[in-house]
Amino acid sequence: MNNFLTSKRVRRVLWGALVAMLMMALGAWSFWPNTVVITLHPFVGTQPLTLNEKVYQNPVGVGEFSVRDFQFFMSNIRFVSNDATQTVMDSYHLVRFDDAAPMALVFDASSLLGVHTLEFGIGVDSAANSSLKSRGDLDPNGRMAWSWEVGYKFVLLEGGFEHQGQAHPLVYHVGFSENYKTIRVPLNRPWYQMFSAKVDLLVDVKALFDAVHGVNMADVNTIKFDRQDARRMADNYAHLVIPCDNRCVQGLK
Amino acid sequence: MFRTLVTTTSVAGICIGLFGCKQEPLTATPLKDFEAPFVFGHFQVPADNALTVERVALGRLLFYDPILSKNNQVSCASCHQQARAFADGKHTSVGVSGKPLAFNSMSLVNLLWGPQHFFWDGRAKSLEAQALVPIQHPDEMGQDLDILVKELSTHAEYPSLFAAAYGDISPQHIAAALASFQRTLISANSRYDQYLRGEITLTDQEELGRKLFMAHPDAKASQRGGNCIDCHSQFVTAGFSTRLDGFSNNGLDVEADLKPGLAAVTGKPEHRGLFKVPSLRNIAVTAPYMHDGRFATLAQVLAHYNSGIEPSTTLSPLIVEANNQVSDTAGAISLNLSESEQQAIIAFLHTLTDTDFLTNPAFSDPFNRAQDATAQVSKDAR
Question: B236 contacts in A (CB within 8 Å)?
Fold first, then answer.
């Protein structure tokens, strides 16, 4: 045995193996992600959302519409695994699609290993909604703030609607604490993606108008303070964000 | 309601041994009493231009010194007068060339908050970048920067002041000093601020005006509103700071007459006719109004928003849609506010006047030439 270990050739092989293992470990360490990235891909039904330029069919009625501004709050993000739930501090993220770069939320975390569900709210929880504290993307002087007596807009969509030559503005500002909705997205990842720290989600603007209740923009071109209208659109935006499906996969290629 | 944010920023002189030390300021005294209401929210001072006593003092001297102009007769304060909340009372300003400029002089107040794009069309992305533009503009101050640096370098006092503040005299340090002074121009003791702090109550008319200011109208929900807050934030009262959200087309011109506005900077057709939404702090003393100074009074401004909106493709849908009546004549854009409601909003706007700001000695002319301007404003007010 001693002779075996002390033979020059074997020692050289062992040293080589050790160096190779160290290099592999080093490589794995340097490539191991240290951030989790959630990318949101906006669509209107089957078509990608393009602000200002593109025209879409009214999902539940006659006419066409365009979107000038679309923003919403995604809040209280939690990564749920069987043995633990990781929460994000001051997790109030303004999601918007008016930048050339994709809309991505980046978090310091080593991996999503074991995480089976992503949980988050659409809107602002009642405690934060009645506070003047600036945290995350919440800003009492921001575009998403109503007056402090009312709170934040949770979802903002502004644009234009046209039917038979008649144009109308679209103004949907939906808020109120009772309309905070929690969404749970299962992360059903194939085994070969188990180490990936990327999550791709699909945001479907069409869902605002047809997910649960039909909101016909030909009849209701504005929602703000009417509680019943706001609740109907809130029921709809509980389905605004879903896992990426074929639409998204096509877009990613 | 108010808390105090105190910044104690300081300048750290960094020397990199290999390359030797750049000239560093001789002294760097943190600005200890710099404070602002917490409801104004977060703010950022550039890391390479931390606020110090020396920088602010230098910036104040430069701001009021006509040495910055080609003919040594025009200073920043010529068009930005303290008694007018750092506006100038003219439709559009006039500089060294005597030609009227394209824009109305913008009030300088609470510049750390609101849109961090400067000029009416947002072409400067920082106060530092903004400062050198009017100095060199042939119709504003018409100055050559190399000549200006030479003039300041041979001046009896500026070399030591620059040495203390920045180390040396350069166009960048001139801009940085001017930016530092302007960042200290904080207005936070108007009657509205006192109301927010719980120190006073507003009159019934002012309170009605405040409520109207803070609401988008929704006739279906019986919510009356003046629609102001859709563009002017509730505490800062300026445009929004996020991206280009602080720019708007507020219906001043029909399609054919739309000026480029923000589109001159972004090149995007959807930005035609969009201009920076200014702070409304001290609005009662900053007439005339709008980017071209077309309205002489606040009553004219309210009349415009109530029933004078001109349609165009980039007009804000929030303005088109805002109506205090359930139905209106087809195509007409009107807030349908009553006369007394318009008066109430004007009464609320007057609560934004901050006399302490308008007379604060720390912001005044260090060369003691302010009296003339103050007298003129008093005369105008009468």
Answer: 141
